[in-house]
From TrEMBL:
Recorded superkingdom: Bacteria
Organism from which the protein derives: Collimonas rhizosphaerae
UniProt domain XdhC- CoxI: residue ranges: 15-87
A Pfam family the protein falls into: XdhC_C
Family annotation (InterPro entries): MoCofactor_Util/Proc, PreATP-grasp_dom_sf, XdhC_CoxI, XdhC_Rossmann_dom
Stretches assigned to the XdhC Rossmann domain: 169-311
Name of the protein in question: XdhC family protein
């Protein structure tokens, strides 16, 4: 399953190739509260069909009505990129469903060969982070290397946006837990790769949209070269497989590296990696083990939810105080249980 940005770009390119007029809409800037952040994309074709979104729906509805009535020229009268603002006044904010005081500034770009969407999509597929600079006066686009998480820039002449590789999850082990984790990751727009050299596990493991590899975990990790948009999770409970993946993943650019296991097994794993494989303390600090946030999970699906929540939190750079890692959550839970037991005992003496 593609992430939303890639889906919007691919849909826009498909519509253009089919001969339909297409407008690519980008959220360039926002003030106050807004439903969608800068960089969000939407494509609208001449029939009023859309992919993606730039608000809660009301701005989209306004653009669709205008395009259906007057064509794409209604929003790009000169055939060149146009800048539109919504929600400047309180009345407009209410009309377009924006939070009170919210304002959103959009750039509407008629899609053509100048847009270079095919090259941009190819760069994303090759996992290259790209800066896309749109000339507002000519419609010409420049593509160059750039960081994936850059903030869009808009001035009177140019709009610079940043796109890059889809978030990717490498899962070691093809078990029941892996299946639930992969389903969640797919629904969140991750590219998913499952690695398990054990034929008996792979034989009955099939999930649409997931690449399944029979290679040894260390070979696969070295081959894929995890970048800053990649997470690696080891789920086999077999040190011969999990440790192989972790050794290389911890020395890569992966934004998340985790492994399932009890607290005791997790400490033993750290000792092995430190003692026998010379993994440094800073690298070991990046190992999430036991993987996941503490939610009292019991079933494979609940454990998968716990792990996926932690992966998304790390990806987004948001770790709230309430987002307690499994190892800390279990300790707090057990401590509370002991205190409750002691209180009950003292009351019954």
């Amino acid at each position: 399953m593609e992430d939303l940005d890639t889906l919007v770009l691919r849909t826009a390119l498909d519509w253009q190739t089919a001969g339909l007029p297409v407008v690519l809409v980008t959220v360039a800037r926002t003030w106050g509260s807004s439903p969608r952040p800068p960089g969000s994309l939407m494509a609208i074709n001449g029939r009023g069909e859309t992919a993606g979104s730039v608000s809660g729906g009301c701005i989209e509805d306004d653009l669709i009505v205008r395009i259906r009535k007057e064509g794409t020229q209604a929003v790009c009268a000169s055939g060149l990129p146009t800048v539109l603002r919504y929600g400047i006044s309180a009345d407009e904010a209410h009309r377009f469903g924006l939070p009170c005081g919210g304002t959103v500034e959009l750039v509407l770009e008629p899609v053509s060969a100048l847009s270079r969407l095919d090259e941009l999509l190819l760069a994303c597929e090759r996992r290259h982070s790209t800066e896309r600079v749109l000339d507002l006066q000519t419609g010409q686009v420049q593509l160059r290397a750039g960081r994936r998480d850059g903030v869009p820039r808009l001035d009177g002449k140019q709009l610079a946006t940043y796109l890059g590789p889809q978030a990717r999850l490498i899962v070691i082990g093809a078990g029941d837990l892996s299946r639930y984790l992969c389903q969640m990751a797919l629904s969140l727009g991750f590219e998913v790769v499952v690695c398990d050299p054990r034929e008996e596990y792979r034989a009955s493991w099939l999930l649409d949209g997931v690449t399944v590899s029979h290679e040894m975990p260390d070979d696969l990790v070295l081959q894929l070269q995890p970048d800053a948009r990649t997470a690696v999770v080891a789920l086999t409970h077999d040190p011969k497989l999990d440790d192989l993946a972790l050794i290389d993943a911890l020395q890569s650019e992966a934004f998340y590296v985790g492994a399932i296991g009890s607290r005791r097994n997790s400490e033993q794993r750290r000792d092995r990696l430190r003692t026998y494989f010379d993994i440094t303390e800073p690298a070991l600090q990046g190992l999430h083990g036991p993987a996941g946030m503490y939610i009292g999970s019991k079933t494979p699906a609940e454990i998968a939810l716990s792990i996926m929540a932690e992966i998304v939190a790390v990806k987004n750079g948001v770790l709230l105080p309430s987002a307690t890692p499994v190892v800390d959550g279990k300790s707090l839970y057990e401590s509370a249980g002991r205190q409750a037991s002691a209180a009950v005992s003292s009351c019954t003496v």
